[in-house]
Amino acid sequence: MKKTDFLLFLLILLMILSGTLAYLGSTEDVASVVPVVADNRDTVELPVLMYHGITDLPASVSEYTILQDTFEQDLKWLGDHGFTSVSLQQLIDYTEKGKALPDKPVLITFDDGYVNNYTFAFPLLQKYHMKAVISVIGREADISSGDMYRKLSNSSLSWGEIALLSNSENVEIGSHTYNLHTTSKGRKGADKKAGESQKDYEAVLKEDLTKSRDKITESSGISPVLFAWPYGAHPKDGSADKVLKELGFKISVTSYQKTNVIEKGNPDSLFGLKRFLRTPDFDMNKII
């Protein structure tokens, strides 16, 4: 190769490399100006499914525990009927920014945070590319994390397992209180007691949920944005929402069997979401 040809080759090569680097350096800027796909619907229907325990033993099936095969059938049914499971951020982005949601969104939730959610439900969520939220009871996670002899059939998730789930693309972690999932001392879950002042109630709720939030954040690195009311019991006047918002929660869920209607431009429509309890004999067609 002649010297002039070689120099020309080097010049062309440098021009190609510099152009490639310039393109790569600009991809972040290009991505930042890509227009957001807006949703032309002012409201969207959102069914929310509520699960608890998952088992592979028919003898363990109860009102709050279904077979792994049943859960898999549910995921297949959702896909066959055009439903797309959504993340919490997708719901928040729709109500706050008008970002598009799937044509038929569905929110899948688990309450209590049993370890069988990890062993039985999680692999199926991965298999069918579905998303779910598992709301954990902080005190129960503390107990599980310190019990090396726990029974995996009905124990709660440990903080290590919570961290593993949270780091996946299929599971988000919500709060189910730290230690208010009880009916002792005249209180049903995290609801206000009869005769309790609003000030005292807010102090109790804030103390418990702050501990729950901080424990979840410490283990997963992500602050929870969903709060699941134990037993579905909550102040019907919405007076507790102020505390939830102050602690960073943007979504709360109850236990009423009804499809929700969420509103674009109205983040408050994500508070008090109703849910269908998935019992062994539940008819999935009810959510349509």
Walk me through what this model shows.
Strands 2, 5, 6, 7, 8 and 12 form a 6-stranded parallel sheet that branches. This protein has a two-stranded antiparallel sheet with strand order 1-11. The protein has a two-stranded parallel ribbon with strand order 3-4. It has 8 helices and 12 strands. The chain is globular. It is α/β, with parallel strands linked by helices and 288 residues long. The N and C termini lie far apart (73 Å).
Distance between the termini: 73 Å
* Separate helix tally: 8
Beta fraction of the residues?
15-25%
- The beta-strand count equals 12
Structural class label: alpha/beta
Query: Can you tell me the residue ranges where pLDDT is under 50 for at least 5 consecutive residues?
Result: 6-32
What would the principal axes of the Cα set say about the shape? Answer: globular
- Helical residue percent band: 25-40%
Summary tags:
288 residues, two-stranded antiparallel ribbon, 8 helices, 12 strands, 38% helix
Write the layout of secondary structure elements.
Blueprint: H1 3-32, E1 43-46, E2 48-51, E3 53-55, E4 65-67, H2 68-80, E5 84-85, H3 88-97, E6 105-112, H4 116-127, E7 132-136, H5 138-145, H6 159-166, E8 171-175, H7 198-220, E9 226-228, H8 241-246, E10 251-253, E11 260-263, E12 276-277
Parallel strand pairs: 2-6, 2-12, 3-4, 5-6, 6-7, 7-8, 9-10
Antiparallel strand pairs: 1-11
